[in-house]
Amino acid sequence: MESPMTVSAFGHRHEQVVFCQDEPSGLKAIIAIYSTALGPALGGTRFYPYASEQEAIADVLNLSQGMAYKNALAGLDLGGGKAVIIGDPHQVKTETLLRAYGRFVETLHGRYYTACDVGTFSADMDVIARECHYVTGRTVEHGGAGDSSVLTAYGVYQGMRASAQHVWGDTRLAGRTIGVTGVGKVGRHLVRHLIEEDAHVIVTDLDTAAIEALRADYPIEVAESDAALIAGDLDIYAPCALGGALDDDTVAELSASIVCGAANNQLAHEGVEKLLADRDITYAPDYCVNAGGVIQVADELEGFDFDRAKSRASRIFDTTMAVLDQAARENIAPSIAADRLAEERMAQIGRLAQIRV
């Protein structure tokens, strides 16, 4: 097993980027630590068959920066980091590979805590934890928080209520028509919250089984396609599937007054948010409203308590209100307001480390 190699992330403000390779197990991984100003960097491990190492590097750098901002805005005393394992998890994921990866995370001595992401699950975290102390998002059987989609959806729901208050002066969603794209784990839990509020919910998903399972439990309407959903008569649009759901064409067709969903990186490019503003559509920044999952796994570091974690996730309502109010007050995009609030907290709290004890 080779030692980790630290390199400069040119063009980025990352503290550390570590390349990890263990040839016998087939492990090829990259760990990126963007900031530890607020505490140890926390972020999931993505297991994905990247087309090239450069693609993997670009992804881990962007994701780790996003985690720093998400954790800061969520009020956590944690910095931001991310890891990627290069390869198809269905073909190359093994106990040996995961444990080798855990050894590399251990060599960072707590500067980075890992958790689940695309291609990794709570059971994988249990395996990694056999070689590493710095793991969260573990199974309930091992004292972990289990499925983080529960509080991810709850946080999005709170962000949606705050957006409704900002736009209509009322947090209630009863009678509102809400379109949800993607009804997997997070989307399904979000739909439950909306139905309980007597909202009219329209959904789409490429997975017909997910649609039928949802239909069996809730009185939902199913749109013929994503395009049909977006072009329909909506009050709120909730993208909860893949990133990049909002592009020029989508925004041109969108009838909703609010966009608030769980998907990461919803804007296809930076100019999309201006297009939304030009059409008077309020955008609740994704990393603000979908922070319930990271709040859940962060709580695990203290010994997981669901009620405590849910209480913390409920504050996403207040954070969303602060973001949207600042955006309106300063006539800036909500994403810029969210960034500024996160950067301000990182700077202010990070400065306290200069006070020697």
From TrEMBL:
Give the active-site positions. K82
| Family annotation (SUPFAM superfamilies) | Aminoacid dehydrogenase-like, N-terminal domain, NAD(P)-binding Rossmann-fold domains
Glutamate/phenylalanine/leucine/valine/L-tryptophan dehydrogenase C-terminal domain location: 146-354
Lineage: superkingdom? Bacteria
Question: Which residues does NAD(+) bind?
Answer: G182, V183, G184, K185, V186, G187
Q: Which organism is it from?
A: Aeromicrobium piscarium
What biological-process GO terms show up in the record? amino acid metabolic process
What InterPro entries does the record point to?
Aminoacid_DH-like_N_sf, Glu/Leu/Phe/Val/Trp_DH, Glu/Leu/Phe/Val/Trp_DH_C, Glu/Leu/Phe/Val/Trp_DH_dimer, Glu/Leu/Phe/Val_DH_AS, Glu/Phe/Leu/Val/Trp_DH_bac/arc, NAD(P)-bd_dom_sf
Q: Which UniProt keywords apply?
A: NAD, Nucleotide-binding, Oxidoreductase
A Pfam family that this protein carries is ELFV_dehydrog_N
Q: Which family does it belong to?
A: Belongs to the Glu/Leu/Phe/Val dehydrogenases family.
Q: Which GO terms label this protein's molecular function in UniProt? A: nucleotide binding; oxidoreductase activity, acting on the CH-NH2 group of donors, NAD or NADP as acceptor
What is this protein identified as? Answer: Glu/Leu/Phe/Val dehydrogenase
